[in-house]
Amino acid sequence: MAIPRDVEMEIVRLLYAEAAEKDWTFLTDSERTPIYNRWARSPEIGERLALYLKDPEGVRHWIKDRPMKEYARAVYGIGKYAQLVPNPAAGVSTLVKQALGAEWTPDLETRRIKPLRVTLRKGETEEMYFTWGPQRDLKHLAWAALRAEADGDTTPWTLCVVSAFVAPIPQEVKTANLRLAERCGLRITHATGE
């Protein structure tokens, strides 16, 4: 039996409210585990979901692989749950402005996911891909850029590592990121998105 849309949205709203409270994007996997477990057992989330899922053990799996997998995209206004984020993070335009300046304009029609990215334009002739995510996702951002280059795409990439205002990226991590960028021929920037 499918989860009714209104029930799904109400549950996801609860999940996202707590995720925002806990700075979900910046939690480690081990910090997330007890939260997933509590959600799966809670009457307002887990027990309600169990009514609609064939396998009651699949509640935690549904939470993790559906709404929480979408959370990072929803925070930036992307996907079916975007309207449920209580305090949306900086939009891509704000991140671009912080990272590269006001002369670059994101073409939102080119927005892609896995990883989040858009094509930026500067004037009529300059173009680059801009991808962003938290420090924990830098490997995915770098892999996408390196893979595109290996496949023959010569468009340059800028990888933007996003941190929370209350939890900035330590200077030694930023320095390590810049060394990685130099080694791989990439451009890595840092911005505050939440």
Give your account of this protein's structure.
With 194 residues, the chain is an alpha/beta fold. It has eight helices and five strands; from the N terminus they run H-H-H-H-H-H-E-E-E-H-E-H-E. It has a five-stranded mixed β-sheet, with helices on both faces. Strand 1 (105-112) and strand 2 form a beta hairpin. Helix 1 runs antiparallel to helix 3 and helix 4 packs parallel to helix 5. The two termini are 37 Å apart.
How is the secondary structure organized here?
Elements: H1 5-21, H2 29-41, H3 43-50, H4 58-65, H5 67-75, H6 92-100, E1 105-112, E2 117-122, E3 126-134, H7 138-150, E4 157-163, H8 171-184, E5 187-192
Parallel strand pairs: 3-4, 4-5
Antiparallel strand pairs: 1-2, 2-3
Helix pairs in contact: 1-3, 2-3, 2-4, 4-5
Q: Please tell me what the overall shape is.
A: elongated
| Main pleated-sheet profile | 5 strands, mixed
SSE series: HHHHHHEEEHEHE
Span of the ends, CA to CA: 37 Å
Low-confidence segments, given as residue ranges, are: none
How are the strands ordered across the major sheet? 1-2-3-4-5
Share of residues in helices: 40-55%
Per DSSP E runs of 2 or more residues, the count of β-strands stands at 5
What count of helical segments does DSSP give?
Answer: 8
The residue-averaged pLDDT reads: 90
Radius of gyration: 18 Å
Alpha-beta classification: alpha/beta
The percent range for strand residues is 15-25%
